[in-house]
Structures are given as C-alpha cells and as structure tokens.
Amino acid sequence: MSSNMQRQAVPLSRSEKCIVGTGLERQVALDSGVPAIADHEGKIISADTDKIKIIFSGNGDTLSIPLVMYQRSNKNTCMHQTPRVPRGKLTPQVAKESSYAPEDRLLRAILGIQVSASKETCLKLPIGGRGRVIDVRWIQKKGGSSYNPETIRVYISQKREIKVGDKVAGRHGNKGIISKILPRQDMPYLQDGRPVDMVFNPLGVPSRMN
C-alpha cells in the first residue's frame, strides 16, 4: 500500500542525496528517463535554462540537449529541469518593466469611465496563495455554444511547504502522517551535533511486511 502511495508523491524543490541507500538509485534514475544525459564524453560550451550545448572531444560535433521547463505532468505536478553543470557563458539579463499606470488613470484614459462606476471581474488567487504563471491558454468552444463560449486557463506553479497532516512514504514500504513540526533546536541531534530532519515511527516498517 505504501509503495502504491509513492506514485502520488510531490517532487521536492531541493532534493538531497540519501544517506543510506540500496545501490539501485542510479539505475532507477537512468531508467526513469528524467535526467538529461549525454551519450559521449565532451566539453560543455554553454548551459542555460532551456538547453545545454556540448562539444564532443573526439570528432568535434556539438550536441544540444533540451531541458523541460515548467511542464504539467499527469499528476498535476510541475516538471522542471535545471542545469547542474558549470556554464560556459553568461546569458544577458532581461530588463524588467517597473513602471505601470495607476488603475484609475488607465480606465479614464482608455474607457472614459470613473473607477467607482466600473466593476472588477478579474479572477485572483485566494488570500495567501502565491505562485508563478507558467502558461496561459485561450480556449474557444466550437458549435456556437452560448454557455461559456470562451475560456481562459491560467496555469500557476506553486511551491508548498510540508505541514501537519501530510502523508510521507518511504522507499521501503513505511509510511506515516506528519504529527508535529518542531524548530531545529528542539529536534534530536546526532553525536556530532547535527540535527535530525525527520523522525519515523519504527513500528511503521515491520507492520508493512505482507
């Protein structure tokens, strides 16, 4: 049951290497097809947000490996690849627009109406919701339907922190519910002084040996 729930896991934004492994982590990562790996040895000449360029040491050919950027998976999670290799060159910075006209001045100039007489129909995120807009799609229904003939879908990538009540599943069949979140200074620590990130109930492992 716990292994089945591992398929529902949300990917981590800052993943770390496991301390105790089984030895199959590299093969599992290669078989998944997610990492961007070159077929031959070479030198990286450039690495940016959308692709990595490599020049092979043997024949001098170049290879461009595309990277996945903010794509939606079938589980409604975000698929995003970032280069972890040294970059060969720096990309120029894009200037950001920092000046916008006030809302009331814009409505008077374009529509010729007062702000008090207008009605705001824009859709906003709930209070406390934050994220990055990754895609906007405009969908038009065919057949002349009068019920919602046009739909605008905005896809937002959100980063959520773990909270009490979330379910956590391990790689060995153990699972559990987050019952308490403590400050780092209140967590158990090792002999060298390093604090423990997460404490599992040991009864969750033998009870799943079915």
Automatic annotation (TrEMBL):
Annotated family: Belongs to the RNA polymerase beta chain family.
Keywords assigned by UniProt, alphabetized: DNA-directed RNA polymerase, Nucleotidyltransferase, Transcription, Transferase
GO biological process: DNA-templated transcription
Species the sequence originates in: Corchorus capsularis (Jute)
Domain of life: Eukaryota
Gene3D superfamilies (alphabetical): 2.40.50.100, 2.40.50.150, 3.90.1100.10, DNA-directed RNA polymerase, subunit 2, domain 6 (2.40.270.10)
The protein, known as: DNA-directed RNA polymerase
Domain DNA-directed RNA polymerase subunit 2 hybrid-binding, chain residue ranges per copy: 103-210
GO cellular component, one term: DNA-directed RNA polymerase complex
PROSITE patterns tied to this protein: RNA_POL_BETA
SUPFAM superfamilies for this protein: beta and beta-prime subunits of DNA dependent RNA-polymerase
GO terms, molecular function: DNA binding; DNA-directed RNA polymerase activity; ribonucleoside binding
EC assignment: 2.7.7.6
InterPro entries attached to this UniProt entry: DNA-dir_RNA_pol_su2, DNA-dir_RNAP_su2_dom, DNA-dir_RNAP_su2_hyb_sf, RNA_pol_bsu_CS, RNA_pol_RPB2_OB-fold
